Amino acid sequence: MNKLLILVVEDDRPVRNLIVTALKTHDYKYLTAENGNSAILEASSHNPDIVLLDLGLPDMEGVDVIKNIRTWSNMPIIVISARSEDADKIEALDAGADDYITKPFSVEELLARIRVTQRRLAIIQSDENQESSVFINGQLKIDYTAGCTYLNGVELHLTPIEYKLLCLLSRNVGKVLTHTYITQQIWGSSLENDIASLRVFMATLRKKLEVSQNDIQYIQTHIGIGYRMLKIE
């Protein structure tokens, strides 16, 4: 039996049944809620490991559920919604969602996103237990204490902004970070010029991480939304 407890918040019965069946088949424990108030109650009562959340709930917006949970917990929240506009995705991610899946979705994609979140949880728990000062992802190594970064055993020469960006992404590996969140963390503001600068710095950082087309992709771009560091097996 998989140890993860997943809360499924979905008012559409066929979709809810599809998700529950997939979780059952892969031995995940689960809870269900059909509206926002029930979702908040279940989340606060059972402290699930992951929340799968629809945005269009009958009693409140899913974004309000995210905001409520974020006042007392950092539990991972994966949004599953028919809303496909970038503005909706950005609003949910800025409110505190960890990931966003657009309906219709495949069961394989959903399970993959859960696995990514599961790995991120394991990394966070490991860091909390060991208070590690070194981050390793594939051939990428960051020594936070020394302020040094290595790729394939060779030290990378990064600018201060590139290093801050890389550290921010690495500490949120597997999670989509919006342009607004990143610029707030790096520059303390989210002006249009900050977002333009972010794109430039991210492009130079990726060139240093991915010298050739055959190199591993560490940073994934979500066009119009933000960036995610991929977990390399």
Description:
The chain is of the alpha/beta class. The chain has two domains: 5-120, Rossmann fold, CATH 3.40.50.2300; 133-229, Arc Repressor Mutant, subunit A (Orthogonal Bundle), CATH 1.10.10.10. It has eight helices and twelve strands. The protein has helices at 13-25, 36-46, 62-70, 86-95, 107-130, 160-170, 179-187, 192-209; strands at residues 5-9, 29-33, 50-53, 77-81, 99-102, 134-137, 140-143, 148-151, 154-156, 177-178, 219-222, 226-229. The strands form three sheets. A five-stranded parallel β-sheet has the order 2-1-3-4-5, sandwiched between helices. Strands 6-7-8-9 form a four-stranded antiparallel β-sheet, covered by helices on one side. α2 packs parallel to α3 (62-70) and α6 crosses α8.
Offer a quick outline of the entry.
The strands form 3 sheets. This protein has a 5-stranded parallel beta sheet with strand order 2-1-3-4-5, sandwiched between helices. A 4-stranded antiparallel beta sheet has the order 6-7-8-9, covered by helices on one side. It has a 3-stranded antiparallel beta sheet with strand order 10-12-11. The chain has helices at residues 13-25, 36-46, 62-70, 86-95, 107-130, 160-170, 179-187, 192-209, and strands at 5-9, 29-33, 50-53, 77-81, 99-102, 134-137, 140-143, 148-151, 154-156, 177-178, 219-222, 226-229.
